[in-house]
From TrEMBL:
This is Lipoprotein. It comes from the Bacteria.
């Protein structure tokens, strides 16, 4: 679930109750972040940290794994495998980290911040995974996509959001999360 800008919800355009709800939401979110001093990353990010693990409602049918537990910063290629172990097809969008279906998240304090680094000038493509299918994504840490927001040393994980239907594009209510790995 993402947070939309106030203009997307009608604030300032006679938004009424929905405008008030958005204002309260932003106040609550600001209050939640006021306790820590987490620096705001440079470049385009997800804007909100993802939950600590996969969505329990997914039944664990989609899994995400990476090919190693350690990568050198700026020179490595992380191979992310997304497996649909469920009985029905699932769908996800690309244009996340290095324009793949996977989002790299870096641990900052007790939370996670996404590196949504993709310079492609097109709409995201929908990726369809049949039951039993494996989608392999290659995230090149030296890619031009990471120039505005480099992958620096730290603890990371791969996250793939997905949904049970091709539409609506852009909505991925279920998450699969890899084990953590280290970039040095």
């Amino acid at each position: 679930m993402g947070v939309r800008a106030a203009s997307d919800r009608g604030v300032g355009n006679g938004g009424g109750r929905s405008g008030l709800a958005v204002a309260v939401l932003f106040t609550v979110l600001a209050g939640c972040s006021a306790g820590g001093s987490v620096p705001e990353p440079v470049g385009s990010v997800t804007g909100m940290a993802s939950p600590a693990g996969p969505d329990p409602s997914s039944g664990g049918s989609v899994s995400v794994s990476v090919d190693a537990g350690h990568y050198p910063a700026g020179r490595a290629v992380i191979v992310v495998s997304v497996r649909n172990g469920g009985p029905v097809p699932v769908f996800t969008d690309d244009q996340k980290s290095d324009c793949t279906v996977a989002l790299l998240e870096r641990r900052i304090g007790q939370g996670w911040v996404g590196l949504r680094a993709c310079g492609a000038e097109r709409a995201p493509a929908v990726v369809h995974l049949e039951p039993g299918a494996v989608h392999v994504a290659r995230i090149d840490l030296g890619s031009e996509n990471f120039r505005p927001q480099p992958v620096t040393p730290g603890t990371y994980r791969g996250v793939v959001g997905y949904r049970p239907a091709a539409e609506p594009s852009g909505e991925e209510p279920q998450l699969a999360v890899s084990a953590t790995f280290v970039v040095t």
